[in-house]
Amino acid sequence: MAVTETYPSPNSRDPQRFSVVVVGAGPAGLTVGCVLRAAGVDCLVLETGTREFVEQRPRAGVIEEPVVRGLERRGLAGNLLERARRDTACEFRFDGERHSFGYHELTGHHHWVYPQQFLVTDLVREYADVRGGAVRFGVRDVRVHDLDGDRPSVSYVCPGSGLREVVVCEFVAGCDGARGATRAAVAGRARVARHDYGIGWLALLAEAPPSADRVLFGCHPDGFAGQMPRGPGVTRYYLQCPPGDDPENWPHARVWAELHRRLGAAGAEPLTEGPLVEKRVLDMHDYVTEPMSFGRLCLAGDAAHLVAPIAAKGLNLAVHDAFALGDAFVARLLRGDGAGLAGYSESRLRQVWDYQEFSQWLSELYHGGATGDPFRAGTALARLRRLFSSPVGAAAFAERYLGTAARY
After folding, report:
1. Rg for the chain (alpha carbons), in Å?
2. Integer Cα distance of 250 and 235 in angstroms
3. For residues 265 and 279, what is the distance between their CA atoms, to the nearest angstrom?
4. What is the pLDDT of residue 253?
5. What is the spatial distance between Cα 327 and Cα 274, in angstroms, rounded to a whole number?
6. What is the mean pLDDT of residues 137-153?
7. C-alpha 112: how far from its chain's center?
8. Fewer beta carbons within 10 Å, N or C terminal of the chain?
């Protein structure tokens, strides 16, 4: 567990010096690093995993258009723009019928589908190989020190030498997730609000073509089901299940029987079955850490908040954090303008809470009909019907689903 203490440790060498230390080489940390390097700010990224691990770690990849445009403005979207699929519509299936929802027609905007590991690979290359950013992979026992002083530091055990290295800096960006060193360092000071949905999703990856060229949402009395195309021969599926369920309770035959049933609708093409190369249960929960800054440490991404994958907002929030934090660091370090850092936590939390509320709303739409509660089932069905009977309601949903409803 990380601690906040005064350096040096007994076996440490002379400290290194960087303006910013970024802990964590996920989308948030790497984006912060790229923003800093583009401005000529020296920084160091520390990551406990190997480069191969972070570049291959599978995650979702639904990216909102404002995030893509932000990456594009910062020179970070070249491969994404060439390779990503653009989604312009989704389809809801309920009451045995198909209901196409064309959000591009309503708003002029769309989603981009680009697996997160591809984005991370692009960002690692840009940060380390193109922009010359310093990075240490495979480090152990990361610790954060003196956050409230003028010269904080981060120390870690070097995997090669086994020695504790100390890095003195001006600011620390905590981008290492809920169980990382930076979140642990402020455990006694942070307020953490948590919400558990009481449901699980069985996440599946099938070596099989999708049955439709769009995302499918099956809102069924026996539980939610979803189809997310990932390529011509690979499809991501989700099945609602009890939280903490064992994936071994879902053999091949049971999985496909439930997917056929929950995604079945009049006139729909049958699902094409294939080998299931991934099965894991995701317990649906959210948390928000307040504030997102503590002295010289600012948290971003999953270190600060988690949004259940119900609304596909987690990656997008993390990169929005990184844009704001990277720009704020640059303003403070190069121009002496501290306004961005002073307002970082408050401004980011507005969007975080907005996305949390939308995730809860959408969860009730997806799962309310499977609760066994006639009242919740009735209100969930009313929400679904409103999407296809009220142009104003449809447009409002589309803007929030696409992340274009407001600016933060």
Report:
1. 22
2. 17
3. 25
4. 97
5. 45
6. 95
7. 14
8. N
Residue type, 261: R
List all residues 6 or more positions away from 82 whose beta carbon is below 8 Å from its beta carbon. Answer: none
d(C-alpha 346, C-alpha 26), whole Å? 23
- Number of C-alpha atoms within 13 angstroms, CB side, residue 180? 29
Question: Backbone phi, then psi, for 207, in 5-degree steps?
Answer: -85, 80
Confidence (pLDDT) at 395: 94
Looking at residue 233, its amino acid is G
Rounded to 10 deg, the angle between the 27-38 and 314-335 helix axes is 30
Q: What is the pTM of this model?
A: 0.92
**In the predicted structure, residue 2 carries a pLDDT above the cut 70:** no
What's the gap between Cα 146 and its chain centre?
A: 29
What is d(CA 148, CA 297) in angstroms, rounded to the nearest whole number? Answer: 9
Query: What confidence tens digit (pLDDT) does each residue in 200-259 have?
Result: 999 999 999 999 989 999 999 999 999 998 878 989 999 999 999 999 999 999 999 999
Residues 228 and 323: beta-carbon distance below 8 Å: no
Q: Mind listing the pLDDT tens digit for each residue in 21-46? A: 999 999 999 999 999 999 999 999 99
Taking the C-alpha atoms of residue 57 and residue 177, their distance in angstroms, rounded to an integer, is 14
Helices (H), 241-373: 252-262, 314-335, 339-342, 344-367
